[in-house]
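Materials and Methods. Structural model of Aminocarboxymuconate-semialdehyde decarboxylase. The 335-residue sequence of Aminocarboxymuconate-semialdehyde decarboxylase from Streptomyces rishiriensis was retrieved and submitted for structure prediction as follows.
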Amino acid sequence: MTAHPPPTVDVHAHVLLPEIEALVADRPGLAEAKALDARRNGPAALAVSGPMVRDRIPGLTDVTVRLAAMDAQGVDVQLVSPSPSHYHYWADEKTAEKVYQLANEATAAHCSAAPDRLRGLGLVPLQHPDLAVDALDHALAQGLSGVEISSHAPGRELSDPAFEPFWARAEDSGAILFLHPFGCTLDERLDRWYLSNTVGQPTENAVALSHLIFSGVLDRHPGLTLIAAHGGGYLPTHIGRADHAWSARADAGAGCAHLPSSYLRRLYFDSLVHDPHVLRELVRAAGADRVLLGSDFPFDMGAEDPVGALRAARLPEADFHAVRGANAAALLRKD
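The predicted structure was written out as tokens:
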């Protein structure tokens, strides 16, 4: 009897939730946050991004349009996360609680329109660690697979001890954590030529993952299920420098028990690296069982043909099918 091939699963796709923006529209702090975002991106990027997002609103909000696009891409299942613009890590506790509740409920409602093809992730207010466990539990109670988090919150890195209860609950529950940066703290240095994204996003991924590795979070919580967007940024392909520092310097090696490169095989990474050679190196560094198909649907920095981009890496057939869907299907079944 011939085994059925695994479904094609895209773990990096977004939904836009206008009700969240309506909720925060009159809240103190929003204008300041928007001004910071504008400074970090620069006027030229904002002039392009506005119309780009408007053109993609149907794919971000209409399930029928989403499913048609998935069919055209050959994608069977999407793991849908809110647009990172909905993080609103500037918000006070009361507002943050309303944001995560609305995000979780709205994302679950979107996915419920096609439950055999759409799985969802909610949000956690990282700026208020005391709310993080409740936010995760709320997401899981809506039938979501886990939550999406950024690379940091204002004044807090992911290595902050205040997040320990959140990591413990995520590990215990088997929730999927999707690490997707929004914004870059290099600020105006990246305010031209869309460097805020092309350099900023992979930098933020590398910094966040390094905090999780070097602080010992992954030693204390080896069962975490964490997917890093954008192939984990610069870290997987430049991990040798981290290994050297860990071996050569007492300060670098003080917080984690093993070579930094060994932790790549405890993490998951999406395939969205825009270069078949980099994708091959990511698979080599992390293992074919740790890389998952990702498209960033439907944004312009995504892959319009994610399966084609994966095929261009010319992986062995078993590895190709693992990344195409078998790895993610196993995670979602476990969830």
